[in-house]
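We emphasize that the prediction below concerns an isolated chain of 97 residues; any contacts that depend on oligomerization or on bound cofactors are therefore not represented. The input was used exactly as deposited, without trimming of termini.
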Amino acid sequence: MAGPSDDYRSRVQEYKQRLENLLVDAQAAMDRQAPDVIDKMATTARNIAQRMDEMASEARRRAEERKAAPESAGTSDRPTEPPEEPPTSSGGSSTAA
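Result of the prediction step, given as a token string:
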């Protein structure tokens, strides 16, 4: 049975292979294109790389948040249930809504 880590690695390997294929295709296309087209392709590649960097940073941030969360992950985001009786020192209205 493959675990989440194996699935992640296989997806990364698949994405890596796709990117390598795209680079080969792009190189072949560049050999046939005018310099202005190559400049546009380079700009697109830089934009994609920047977006991927942002996605990686966000994924690292989420991973760190999950590591920092208590073992009962997911329960900390849910609101706590109100006490059965309101606190006597609340100072607010005692009328229940």
